[in-house]
Amino acid sequence: MELLPLIALLSLINTILPDFIRNYLKVSRFWKTSRAHTRQWQSEIDDAREELENVRNAEHAGEYAKAIKILRAERKLADAEAKLKSARSMDAFKEMGIDTVAYYVSKVLLALILIVVSILNRSTPVIVIDLGISLAPFTGLLSFPTGVYNAVSVPVWAFSCNVTFRLIYDMIMKRDA
């Protein structure tokens, strides 16, 4: 495969895939976390609500005793609800962490592939432009590792593809938002 489309394709994938993984794929859905503690807290809340209803409906020796038992049952219910809320927020935090790690792993992996391709082909020009077209004052910069006059090197082509695709992708996403 030629370098020009290979690097362009890698740059395009490097632009689109990490955001697709973070925004649409949601890797955390495939990573099943244990929901047992959530079910346990939910059953504890149900028990506490039932106990609160029993205390409210029961006959007591005095108003003070009834008020104390109701307060204890309400406190037990509030504690169970707080624990459930904490468990759910911890699950959401774990899912967010998994999605963030997947995003950065995909970005680093694709960047490493692009770097390896650039290093292996650093002396090969991607495009050699006709001598009739002058690239002065950027001739040396554009063809840096190759040494070929009026050429575009692999690192420069990879950088320009990455910047261009990122700019286009950002413009498309801002327009859709």
How would you sum up this structure, described in words?
With 177 residues, the protein is mainly α. The protein is 73% helix and 4% strand. It is built from five helices and two strands. Strands 1-2 form a two-stranded antiparallel ribbon. The longest helix has 58 residues, at 63-120. The radius of gyration is 31 Å and the shape is rod-shaped. The two termini are 36 Å apart. 14% of the residues are buried. This is Guided entry of tail-anchored proteins factor 1.
- Strand pairing plus helix content: what structural class? mainly alpha
Q: Shape from CA axes?
A: rod-shaped
Strand order within the widest beta sheet? 1-2
pLDDT averaged over residues: 87
Q: What's the helical proportion of residues? A: over 70%
Secondary-structure element string: HHHEHEH
Distance between the termini: 36 Å
Number of strands: 2
Gyration radius from CA atoms, angstroms:
31 Å
The fraction of residues in strands falls at under 5%
Unreliable spans are none
Instruction: Tally the helices.
Output: 5
What profile does the largest beta sheet have? 2 strands, antiparallel
Fold blueprint:
Elements (H helix, E strand, L loop, with lengths): L2 H23 L10 H22 L5 H58 L4 E4 L10 H4 L8 E3 H23 L1
Antiparallel strand pairs: 1-2
Helix pairs in contact: 1-3, 1-5, 2-3
Keywords: Coiled coil, Endoplasmic reticulum, Membrane, Signal, Transmembrane, Transmembrane helix
Family: Belongs to the WRB/GET1 family.
GO molecular function: protein-membrane adaptor activity
